[in-house]
Design goal:
7 helices, single chain, six-stranded antiparallel sheet, about 250 residues, about 35% helix, Beta-Lactamase
C-alpha cells in the first residue's frame, strides 16, 4: 500500500519517537500532510523517515519541520523525474457529430431534455447510449465530488472505481492528474457552458506501478441549477488509444 497506492505509514515507536514510511514517487499529498499533523500533535522528539523505493533509506530528525523539509525535497525530486503530461485541445461543439457520434447523441438529448433530471435518470441516459466511461460530479461545500462513476472508467482499477463516489474529484490515485481534471470541471462549473475537448494524458497507476498514455475525447455537460451555477456536471468520454509508457 505504501509502495504502490500512495499511502504513508506512521508507527509510534514509543511516546516520543515515531517512524514515517513513504515512497516519494507515489505518496499522496493528503497522506503526507496527515502523517505530519499526527506526529506534530504528539510532540514527537525523534522522527525516523523511511524512504521506500528501489533502495530503502532511513533518516532521523529531531523536529517535525526538519522531517517536513526532507520529505518535501524527496517528493519534489522524485516527481521531477515523472513530470505530468496532460494536454487538452478544446474543439468546437459543432464538431462533435463528426468527431464522436455517441457523444453527439448525448449532447443532442441534453439540448432537448430537462436538464434538471436526477443522477439515476442521467445514468440511465448514459447507459442508453452505451457510454460507460462517465462521471457525475456534484459541487458540495466548495468542492467537486464524485456522485457516480461508470464501469468503463478503468484506468485506476475496479477497487478505486467502487470507492470513488463521495471522494473529491482531485483525489484520484494520480493526484496530479486529478488536480488537472478538477481544473477543467471547475471551468465548466463557472461558465455553465458545455465543453468538448481532445485529451492526451500520461496517467500514473500506483496499483500497477506503471504509467499509461491515454488519448480520448471528452464531453462535459452542466445539468440543473443551484442559484446561478449548475447542480451537477456530467462527463463522458470515448477512448481512442491506450499505451504503456516508461
Amino acid at each position: 500500500m505504501v509502495d504502490n497506492l500512495g499511502f504513508v505509514a506512521v508507527t509510534m515507536i514509543d511516546s516520543r519517537s515515531a517512524r514515517i514510511r513513504l515512497r516519494p514517487r507515489t505518496a499522496c499529498g493528503i497522506s503526507i500532510a496527515s502523517a505530519l499533523y499526527f506526529i506534530a500533535d504528539r510532540a514527537v522528539e525523534r522522527i525516523i523517515v523511511v524512504k521506500a523505493g528501489d533502495e530503502v533509506v532511513e533518516r532521523m530528525f529531531s523536529r517535525v519541520s526538519q522531517a517536513m523539509a526532507y520529505i518535501g525535497d524527496e517528493v519534489a525530486r522524485a516527481r521531477l523525474q515523472l513530470s505530468p503530461v496532460f494536454r487538452s485541445r478544446e474543439l468546437p461543439i459543432t464538431a462533435i457529430a463528426k468527431e464522436a457520434e455517441p457523444l453527439a447523441v448525448l449532447f443532442t438529448r441534453w439540448l432537448e431534455c430537462d436538464q434538471g433530471r436526477d443522477n439515476t435518470e442521467l445514468k440511465g441516459l448514459l447507459d442508453l447510449h452505451s457510454l460507460q466511461r462517465f462521471v457525475i460530479i456534484e459541487p458540495v461545500d466548495g468542492r467537486l465530488i464524485f456522485a457516480d462513476i461508470g464501469s468503463g472508467f478503468e484506468s485506476f482499477g475496479r477497487t478505486w472505481q467502487q470507492q470513488a463516489p463521495g471522494l473529491p474529484l482531485e483525489e484520484q490515485p494520480d493526484y496530479h492528474y486529478g488536480q488537472w481534471v478538477r481544473g477543467v470541471y471547475d471551468h465548466v462549473l463557472r461558465t455553465g457552458q458545455p465543453l468538448f475537448d481532445d485529451v492526451d494524458a500520461v496517467i500514473r497507476r500506483p496499483h500497477r506501478n506503471d504509467r499509461l498514455r491515454v488519448h480520448y475525447r471528452r464531453l462535459i455537460l452542466p445539468c440543473g441549477s443551484i442559484g446561478s451555477k449548475p447542480a451537477r456536471l456530467v462527463g463522458a468520454s470515448l477512448v481512442d488509444n491506450v499505451a504503456s509508457t516508461p
